[in-house]
């Protein structure tokens, strides 16, 4: 969770009871997480939330000889020095407990899926488990993780969940940087460099709206701006908003998605371009 908390605010307008899940940081222990800080920030949101879903551990099946049960349902690899260190995730190669996976095969292949080939398998599986346990009517996902949002939408459609999945718009800092829990790890220099993502995407959208529809030229301009600022590009892709397939010319609504490294921090951002020719 990040400051801004637009999703809880939007949830108030869509439902009578609101819940927030902190499940993913439990499954991906290396993710930045501040549970108690998040609770305080949720309490500061007008209306708060009704429920916070924060399971301690869902994967203690007691079948893996290489894992000790620490007595409080936290899984730990043998040899860990401290309780909680080396917590095993079922979605990682070294995890256990899962032979059943949910995959949205076509949508997971590009963009973030190229450098993180099993990540969306884990996300889709965990979100399926979350939906089965919580049974929500509406689920909101931030559009900053655009590929993830579209994958969850397609998964819900294909598996006939009776859930409406809604994308919440990207929330930005006052200088345009997309809000993220990873921003706290940016040095002042790298944070300034990271502003090149939003600035170059904004210029590309304006250019497209003025008639520049050649995607190669738009991509080249964004790549050049980010690299000149000091970033190391992971990808820059212009894709259909629903298909997530790369396009050569903008003839229908697209989204320009970018991932780049600034120092040791990987940031993602995107911008929708809603034009039709």
TrEMBL record:
It is an enzyme of class 6 (ligase). Gene3D superfamilies: HUPs (3.40.50.620), Pantoate-beta-alanine ligase, C-terminal domain (3.30.1300.10). It catalyses: (R)-pantoate + beta-alanine + ATP = (R)-pantothenate + AMP + diphosphate + H(+). Pathway: Cofactor biosynthesis; (R)-pantothenate biosynthesis; (R)-pantothenate from (R)-pantoate and beta-alanine: step 1/1. The keyword Isomerase does not apply. One of its GO terms (biological process) is pantothenate biosynthetic process. Its EC number is 6.3.2.1. GO terms for molecular function: ATP binding; pantoate-beta-alanine ligase activity. It holds the Pfam family Pantoate_ligase. One of its GO terms (cellular component) is cytosol. Keywords: ATP-binding, Ligase, Nucleotide-binding, Pantothenate biosynthesis. It comes from the Eukaryota. PANTHER family: CYTIDYLATE KINASE/PANTOATE-BETA-ALANINE LIGASE, PANTOATE--BETA-ALANINE LIGASE. Belongs to the pantothenate synthetase family. This is Pantoate--beta-alanine ligase. It comes from Trema orientale (Charcoal tree). The lineage of its organism: Eukaryota, Viridiplantae, Streptophyta, Embryophyta, Tracheophyta.
